[in-house]
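Listing S7. Sequence submitted for prediction.
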Amino acid sequence: MLSAIANAFKVPDLRKKILFTLFIVALYRIGCFIPVPGVDINIIKSTVDQNAALGMLNLFTGGALETFAVFAMGVMPYITASIIMQLLQAAIPALERLAKEGESGQRKITQYTRYMTLGIGAIEAIGYLSMFQGSITTGTGIPAAVTNIMIVVTLLAGTALIMWLAELITQRGIGNGMSLLIFVNIVARFPSALVQSMNLGNILTTILILVIVLAVIALIIFVDRGQRRIPVQSAKRIVGRRVMGGSGTYIPLKVNGANVVPIIFASAILAVPAQLSTIFPKAAWLGVFSNAVSSGWINWIVQFVLIVFFSYFYTALVFNPTEISDNLRKQGGFVPGVRPGTTTTAYIERIMNRITLPGALFLGIIAVGTSILFTLTNNTMVRQFGGTSILIMVSVALETMTQIESQLKMRHYDGFFK
């Protein structure tokens, strides 16, 4: 692994991408410590610590919420907007046609997602303003309305800046920008949670938890690398005096084809009640509901169902058996023992549905099972780092390493995966 890292920095283009990504991540983390002007941080931190729903949001913002920093809303407005756009593409034919237009269509959808992100961010910023109204301190001679507007504009500007930084990472860096920022937010909370756990005197419990986490990480990596290979044979044809084709290859279908997306989508959906409770702080029932779905058995059931649903939903969006079957037919390839055309399409779709089920169940069991186990320990560290957090961290790390791996292989270097 150390040699792979050294090889990555030997390639100028890859080195620039890695350093650029680290630079953007550093800028993002700095923004998580710059508080919004005109608020009392101590009151906000106390409120977040006492609210389970806000605690979950605080985890996915890397602690920026408890300091009411410029990036206090984190990536959740963008993730929520992305989920809405994905659902709309499946429901509105015009958006579906736009998504199939290639790069130009994707640019338009991305633009719509940005506008929706700013709209959701503005609503959420107003909600935070209402919830933390008691912590706002107006300066001498400054009207309260001016302070409120300044806070909302600052939070909205922070959301737009996060969106821009994430897109910069995706375009000019390594990995998916939004996924990496979520990864950084979760990892940033780990050292403080570990220190708090050690300070409580539960050293043996902390060590046991770390061993369990390492075992879960190994299991996640094992399943993530698993794939079903559909054999493909190309037809022989004679070109001049040479016989072309006839070689065999395969179509790799990953067991966890949706990767980390179902976890992120499920977490974003579960964060919606907490976001709504900030928008309507006077609705007591909404606060009770958001706390219920943020922890406990209701959270576990809903989270498991959402993960399974989004595993199938996202796989259906990115994986098109009809397109694969058509490409095989055009290139003179076929699956041995299966007729080309609709039969091949049905065959690939049936296999994809079968291998998606164990992958989806695995994600749900790891996310919910470890959360149940960790909740029983009543430990500060494990309450913040359940199965969802581990799955996101491992999946994003593997995805990023795979991109670096492909770059190294292109330049004839040994990668991370031997």
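Caption to Listing S7: primary sequence and predicted structure tokens for the chain studied. The chain has a mean pLDDT of 79. DSSP finds 17 helices and five strands in the chain.
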